[in-house]
Specification:
Layout: H1 12-22, E1 29-33, E2 46-47, E3 57-58, E4 62-65, E5 79-87, E6 101-105, E7 117-120, E8 124-127, E9 130-133, E10 143-144, E11 155-157, H2 165-173, E12 178-182, E13 186-191, E14 196-197, E15 208-209, H3 212-222, E16 226-229, H4 237-250, E17 253-257, H5 268-275, E18 277-281, E19 285-286, E20 292-296, E21 299-304, H6 308-326, E22 335-341, E23 353-361, E24 364-367, H7 376-379, E25 383-387, E26 399-404
Parallel strand pairs: 5-6, 13-16, 13-17, 14-15, 17-21, 19-23, 22-24
Antiparallel strand pairs: 1-12, 2-11, 3-10, 4-6, 4-7, 5-9, 8-9, 18-20, 20-21, 22-26, 23-24, 23-25, 25-26
């Protein structure tokens, strides 16, 4: 069995910076209904078509009144007003409120002409067609004026902003039915290896089920990408190259898993330079050392280790930031925080950054790592630390910088 050596190992942070500098954010756009646009990134400036509200309306259940009629109202000397109508939210009063009159009004109903305030229901008593008000009310109280929420033409969304539930609500209230958004990043996952069998097939002796498609596919979908997963490709460099060239034509980013190291059947280091410009092969990180990258026609091609923990942990610290940039996400997926180590860990290997997945509880970080081939290392992980390789053991209680994984990724 022939083996070759890695070249100069790149610093993982240096590799990430280089890839981020090469990512081209999505420029494709599409127009969606508001109900289909949740979480998408706005690609246009959206302004209110009309004022909201378009008319004065009550913001409280009670009685619409002329504030001047209640100037002398007191608890012991209430003012009685004649109730001339009842208004629900969809109704309006056709006349004009005269002195000494009141209209029973529900929240959201249009204010009658002549009324300038609402006496809240709890501060009144109605009897024999009259309402007793036990105190004065200020002009404009419990009334929402036209345009108070948004005037006509107000800017409601800008390119690059996420379409959150509240922002979509504002667009709908302002009269928009559809919105232009940036397209979702298209990402392909291409596993390779003779030992891999797709889900649904029973592995023979020496074979294993392929599930990097499942883990990476889930990560990509949860961060807003459109995912193409390819059945495992055999250890044939020509077939691997043909598959990668095909998916590169239709996708913005390609993730190849397995075959990324220096073994006899690790073909990605041979194939990548034939497809595009080789950027690096090998990172000073554990797990995840056999990682490589190339660029072809402005698109990135990333080779990740086949071991499931190495593959997914590399996706956390390396692929997530690329997806943020590619998909124009306004905030990073990873949140920086700190936590104290719940149990001693190490010693750490010299010259390598260690990815330590952790469970986070009340300011403490408990390591979950069980090995680079054990997917259970990441099952309970809610974040990870990138620990510099100084050859020392980290004692319990030491405060570590942590990258917290967003729910439901972590």
């Amino acid at each position: 069995m022939r083996m070759t050596a890695f070249g100069r190992l790149r610093s993982p942070l240096e590799a990430r910076r280089r890839l981020l500098a090469l990512v081209r954010p999505i420029t494709r756009m599409e127009t969606l209904s508001l109900t289909d646009a949740a979480g998408r990134i706005c690609a246009e400036t959206v302004r209110a078509v009309h004022a909201v509200p378009a008319f004065p309306r009550a913001s409280w259940d009670g009685y619409a009144v002329r504030s001047r009629d209640l100037r002398g109202a007191r608890k012991r000397a209430p003012v009685a007003l004649r109730v001339v109508a009842e208004l629900h939210a969809e109704e309006f009063y056709p006349g004009r409120l005269a002195p000494g009159e009141a209209v029973a009004i529900a929240t959201g109903a249009p204010m009658p002409r002549g009324a300038d305030a609402v006496v809240v229901f709890e501060e009144t008593r109605e009897k024999d067609g009259r309402v007793l008000a036990f105190g004065p009310v200020a002009r404009g109280f419990a009334v929402v004026e036209p345009g108070e929420d948004m005037p006509r033409g107000e800017r409601l969304a800008m390119p690059g902003e996420a379409l959150t539930p509240a922002r979509l609500g504002a667009l709908g209230a302002g009269g928009r039915l559809r919105v232009r958004v940036y397209a979702q990043p298209r990402v392909a996952v291409v596993p390779n290896g003779n030992e891999l069998v797709p889900p649904g097939k029973t592995p023979r002796r020496g074979q294993i089920r392929e599930f990097n498609n499942i883990t990476l596919g889930a990560l990509l979908k949860l961060t807003g990408a459109r995912v193409t997963t390819v059945p495992p490709v055999p250890d044939d460099p020509r077939q691997i190259e043909a598959t990668l060239r095909e998916v590169l034509r239709e996708n913005d980013l390609v993730l190849a898993t397995g075959g990324s190291s220096v073994g006899e059947r690790d073909y990605l280091p041979q194939v990548f330079p034939r497809i595009g410009e080789m950027l690096f092969h090998g990172l000073s990180i554990r797990p995840g050392k056999p990682t490589l990258a190339a660029r072809s026609n402005g698109k990135l091609l990333l080779g990740l280790p086949g071991h499931p923990t190495s593959c997914l942990s590399n996706a956390f610290w390396l692929v997530l930031p690329l997806l943020d940039r590619l998909g124009r996400r306004p905030r990073p997926s990873l949140r920086a925080t700190t936590a104290r180590l719940a149990s001693a860990y190490g010693p750490l290997p010299r010259g390598f950054v260690t990815v330590l997945p952790v469970r986070l509880r009340e300011g403490w970080a408990t390591p979950t790592f069980r090995g680079s081939s054990a997917i259970t290392s990441l099952v309970g992980a809610e974040g990870f630390a990138l620990l510099p390789g100084r050859g020392r053991r980290i004692p319990r209680g030491e405060r570590l910088p942590i990258w917290e994984l967003p729910f439901p990724v972590g």
